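Title: Comparing notes on inverse folding

I've been comparing how different people in this forum approach sequence design from structure. To keep things fair, I'm posting one structure and asking everyone to reply with a full sequence. Here's the target:
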């Protein structure tokens, strides 16, 4: 009889452990806890029924008590086993969060375990990645701003020292000093405008304006530079469109894109502006026949202070495209870059269309 009781207890223990192991593979915490509740109720109930069978045949209450105690113990052990399987991934996320809080920006959580915990780990990793990129952008901002401010300041210092040492006439460098002050002012204005965009404090005075007029004005503004470089300008304005925009802001965006296209287009090349309408938006595209862009440039060219060739000057602070993105998004549009079929680069942005 004792052997039979021990056999029932052992079988219950084995079944409980197997079921607890199977519960670990269930996809979500909710399903796991539901299955745990069913196990906690079903396993003791099955044991009691089995004990009744033993009592009916053996007439021994001690066996019923022993089997019930064993089944209850198995349910507790199975619950603790499953709880550990659920809590361990959460503890790993907590450990990664603690590392991030201590300043380790490379800390990431393992994206495993039940679905909810895996999604939590993925969300944590995305947050950690954004924080790391934010700190990288801040370091890059300080580095490049220092670089772009240092060059004109060094030029101005050299001019002033030459004037003080009477190496040149007092008014010899007046024009050059004005130019360096202009460069510094443009850089400061760009940084201030970008700060306004980041803070959501940029104010745009929207009004209805023909897109073709904006394009013609910008093409006229770069016509002399294009002619000097031997680059042909084209415009496709077959689709008349009126957008709700702040004209001066969108002119700045388009001039930035045209200047960038001219800079990367060789002589005898072509830069074209295309206007298309679809749904409730108008799309403006600037294409060039230059060397094109790689995948990194396609995704990062709108980041502040980023240049694909790293060839920088005090006149090219790397903020133009970042400001362009902010201005377009302030209008409710979007901007992106892509490869042009046949070679070159295509940069497009959308604006709200007036019906």
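Reply #1:
Here's my take.
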């Amino acid at each position: 009889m004792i052997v039979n009781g021990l056999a029932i207890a052992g079988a219950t223990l084995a079944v409980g452990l197997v079921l607890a192991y199977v519960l670990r593979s269930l996809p979500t915490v909710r399903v796991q806890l539901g299955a745990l509740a069913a196990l906690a109720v079903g396993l003791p109930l099955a044991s009691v029924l089995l004990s009744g069978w033993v009592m009916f045949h053996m007439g021994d209450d001690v066996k019923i008590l022993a089997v019930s105690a064993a089944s209850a113990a198995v349910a507790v052990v199975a619950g603790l086993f499953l709880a550990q399987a659920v809590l361990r991934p959460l503890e790993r996320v907590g450990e990664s969060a603690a590392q991030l809080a201590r300043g380790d920006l490379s800390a990431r959580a393992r994206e495993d375990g039940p679905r909810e915990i895996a999604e939590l780990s993925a969300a944590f990793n995305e947050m950690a990645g954004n924080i790391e990129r934010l700190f990288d952008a801040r370091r890059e901002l300080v580095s490049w701003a220092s670089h772009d401010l240092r060059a004109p300041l060094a030029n101005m210092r050299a001019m002033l020292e030459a004037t003080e040492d009477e190496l040149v006439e007092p008014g010899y460098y007046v024009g050059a000093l004005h130019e360096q002050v202009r460069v510094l002012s443009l850089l400061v204005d760009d940084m201030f405008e970008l700060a306004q965009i980041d803070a959501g404090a940029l104010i745009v005075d929207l009004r209805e304006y023909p897109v073709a007029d904006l394009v013609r004005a910008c093409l006229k503004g770069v016509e002399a530079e294009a002619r000097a470089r031997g680059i042909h300008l084209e415009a496709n304005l077959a689709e008349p469109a009126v957008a709700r925009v702040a004209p001066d802001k969108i002119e700045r965006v388009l001039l930035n894109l045209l200047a960038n296209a001219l800079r990367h287009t060789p002589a005898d090349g072509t830069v074209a502006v295309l206007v298309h309408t679809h749904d409730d938006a108008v799309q403006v595209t600037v294409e060039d026949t230059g060397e094109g862009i790689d995948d990194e440039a396609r995704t990062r060219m709108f980041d502040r202070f980023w240049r694909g060739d790293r060839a920088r000057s005090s006149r090219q602070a790397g903020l133009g495209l970042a400001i362009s993105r902010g201005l377009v998004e302030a209008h409710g549009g979007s901007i992106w870059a892509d490869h042009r079929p046949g070679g070159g680069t295509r940069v497009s942005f959308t604006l709200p269309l007036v019906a």
